[in-house]
What we know:
The structure holds 2 protein chains of 2 kinds. By secondary structure, chain A is of the alpha+beta class. In chain A, 26% of the residues lie in helices and 18% in strands. Helices cover 34% and strands 19% of the residues of chain B. The longest helix of chain B has 20 residues, at 166-185. The termini of chain B are far apart. Classes of the chains: A alpha+beta, B alpha+beta. The interface between A and B is medium-sized, with 17 and 18 residues.
Amino acid sequence: MTALEFDDIQHIMLTGTPHLTGRYEFLSFDTPEAGQAWLAEMVPLVQSATDVRKTVNIFKRWVNLAFTWNGLRALVLDDETLATFPSEFREGMAARADILGDTGAAAPEHWVGGLAGDDLHAIVILFARDEDERVRCVGEHDALLARCPGVRSLSYLDLAATAPFEYDHDHFGYRDPVSQPQMAGSGETLIPGAGGALAPGEFLLGYPDEDGLVSNQPALEVLSRNGSYLAYRRLEEHVGTFRDYLKQNAPDAEGEELLAAKFMGRWRSGAPLMLAPEHDDPELGADPMRNNDFDYAKMDPHGYRCPVGSHARRLNPRDTEPNPNRRRMIRRSGTYGPALPEGAPDDGVERGVGMFLICASLVRQFEFAQNVWINDTAFQELGNEHDPICGTQDGTLDFTIPKRPIRKVHKGLPAFTTLRGGAYFFLPGLAALRYLSTLGQQGAS
Amino acid sequence: MAHNGNDDWTQPAALAIPKEGYFELTRGRYGPVYPRTPACYGFNIIAKVLDGREQAIRDYGKQLEAAVAAQPDVLAPLKLHYLRWQLFDVGSGLHFQYQGIFDTDFDKYTEDAVKLFSSTGITTAFTHLEGFPADWKTNPEAFIMFVREHQVPSFLEYGEYPYVTSVEVKKALRLKAAFSEMLDQMQ
């Protein structure tokens, strides 16, 4: 097996970080010179997987950089190389919205932060251990932008974890992430039920994938080696709507928790319905060696424990879909917006999750998940359902909970989330970042 | 979903389809999505056979027969009703036709289909066709484009029991068998 080049891989690919805050900053390069000057100062801040594994207890901030196709063009990457990027990446997420099912309120014309525009060129992903560090880093970056006229901030999204701080969770209270794919050669302990050690080429360019093929897009090796693609999604969570729905459709607090678990496929603690079908088991939810150890086809073909249309079962259908390991993605995310206090009515403030789905092929992995698993009404014969958590909902779709003797169908499900923006980014390896930061000098020579 | 407004399986239905093969363009990941009709989803690939390859293609029939016999659910990911293969010459050389009737838009599981074609030898038959990419083993996108470029949409489709999926057909037959068994047990 090809050994992973940990010292050239941006750390977001291989390690989560203990961040409670952070910022995603979205940038535009007015001139290639300005973009390269900015990049030259940023590159030394980007840590490899090797660095972060060694120093995660010392550092308080972690930086990753990624670029849209328009951004690479703005840095004057040559046309020949630009043409070798996959077509879905060249088109960008907004142009593929109909394929992704991002319609209605989720359509690009409603996106915020300039994410749907052609002048979105780069993202700085800053994760910070605490608020003081976030503020310090933002100040440093603002100073850098002041030194680089011609690099504009289009928008930013500040991250903030909410209580309880002991584990990562979203605004609905679901532990997240629970289930991540694992890469062969990553050195991680294999988690039972996580799908095994997947070929690195599922996530990284330049390595064989599960079919033994090595992606050659883009064609320039210095650029593609140890690179990957990010699908960014800013997903607003309508916490008030979600809580109201649970209250109105369950007899008591216990019933509300069960309904929330049926939507997700897991209790908010992370415990899977497959292993805890009747009652929550927080100890199980917190135990990574146990909380993924199940299948669906053999254990629950009809969905009596875990509904066929639940979020977790759709996004990782395990043994109920062909070649599931060809559709896996690494997930990294942070929450934004203030917590809505328990019992408080919806305050109209936007809160949600800013997440990255990381994969070697956007069309085969991310777009497939959106097009088939999340927003296809015909998924596994359900007929009139999208993903209840992150699918596009317009109030006309259902959610079915199989139950003996008679199933329960929730009609006219409201939207618990709304996509507020997104983009496709290329995440280069460190050598490729250095290459991009010196493009102008190469041209001059 | 394009639809004639009638999904009552008791009412036979026909649907005329525009020249493009769809009513309005809905983009899939790799190209237009072709509509579900009273005869379900379908795909119809027609391509010219390379000179001297007829017997090789005919031999492949036995190969697929054996693959299905050895593993009856080998083609399950395609969500099929029926597959039909023909070789014919109407004066312009020998042509190959692959017709599939199934319950999912072809675009959705296209990578799985390509993988399955290779593992069951369907691809081997395709290698005897004009225009099939020589680098298909390392270039699944080229394979997908070949299939897309050789798809010939219907202009009319008919269903005696329209819009019924193969899962529903099998459920109904299982129910019938279960009732028969129940009646036997009550004798």
